[in-house]
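re: ur question from the group chat, yeah i did fold both. here u go
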Amino acid sequence: MRVAFHLILLSTLSGNAVAAGDSPALDKQDIRAQLSPRNYTSLAAELGAKIDRIAVREGERFTRGQTLILFDCTLQAAQSQRARAALGVAEKVVAANRRLAELHSVGNLELEVSEAEVTKARADVALTDATLSKCAIAAPFAGRVAEQKVREKQFVPAGQPILDVIDDSALELEFIVPSRWLAWLAPGYAFEVRIDETGVTYPAKITRLGARVDAVSQSIKVAAVIDGRFPKLIAGMSGRVQMVPPTVAVTAR
């Protein structure tokens, strides 16, 4: 697994060219870094209801598709049963009217009205089924619970955030460098980052460069990852990135 980070550039390159024959290494760069997940979201209620159960607590792991939140939807279930019963009645009425229409014992208008009632009843069933589908919230990806905002048995309105979840299997790194670094910086360029919380230095490398240069600041966004699997690394940790640009020589004219 590759782990990536979000970086904030603190210092800039002091110089990127020297006279021919000198060619000393460029200054070592000092960059502060903070870990952040690539995927994260806040799971919210899609209907006003009482929370029946929250299956995971803060810090616990879950799998993709796992049910994380269940609501008490007793009222919605009763409405669904009522809608299905109304549909059954409407279907029987239209079936009877069709037989009567064959015998010319009922008018076309009455038959069409009964058929419209069936269509309406089916729409009511679809509506209640859609509402019942909101009574459980499944995990959009595998990860961990970052924060639990409400408690079980608490009533929440529609739109109320309940859980903040993150995918800590892919933590992103992005940072800004001077655009002149494009002379040597490319995907695959290796550097190291030392995380304060673990006291360990990890190998990392550039994965991609930004699509455009900011003309005002003359900078470009860079993304990178750490090579290897490091379970101790979690979102929110911070540290210091050390980049040692290669020697650049310019022929004197």
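okk and heres the other one u asked abt
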Amino acid sequence: MTQPRSGRRRYYDIFSHFYDAFIRLHSRQNKDDTRDFLVDAAGLEGKIMPRILDICCGTGSVILAFKERYPGSVCIGYDFSSGMLRKAREKDVSGQILFIEGDAVALNSDESSFDVVTCSHALYELKGEAREKALREMKRVVRPDGYVLLMEHEIPRQPVTKFLFYVRMFSMGSKDSREFVKGGLEPFNKIFSRVTLSHSRSGKSKLIRCQQ
């Protein structure tokens, strides 16, 4: 892992102690809206023991939602922060979700292992080559008839939040920020044969649905 990524890992290890409280404050009533929207988009109804991988799983809200919806599923949460994973394991009262520490650019899984691979509000953390490597890894581990589901932030409407959003995006660098601010699909079309875009009911998140 590179030094900048190591720095981000330490940041999230510390942030894990406050992360859930921050999300509750930021999302309020929309947290379930965006999470359920993502789970609905997976289209796993009728699948017997589906396999789901949540990359950059944080404290586990998305993979826990999948496990609740599909109790017979095989669920794996993957994150580079040991602090985030510790919180996720504490929330998994069933003890049936496997949490793995690792980097999104090098997934510890075989080819075509999962029906669904998700990454929620985290891909913007990766820049340029690292993001492309992560996307190619997602494509490698998803089954030919499966989906890679990528949820990202929409541009906020509230002026102060919108300003902070732009500051955060442009801190990533000009090329990276343009891709995410404009919501372009070019980085995904380069890698996947079919890419579609939809929007959550709250209007706060967008979902990029990719197929091999």
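fwiw on the second one: The chain has a mean pLDDT of 81. The chain has one domain: 3-211. idk if thats what u expected
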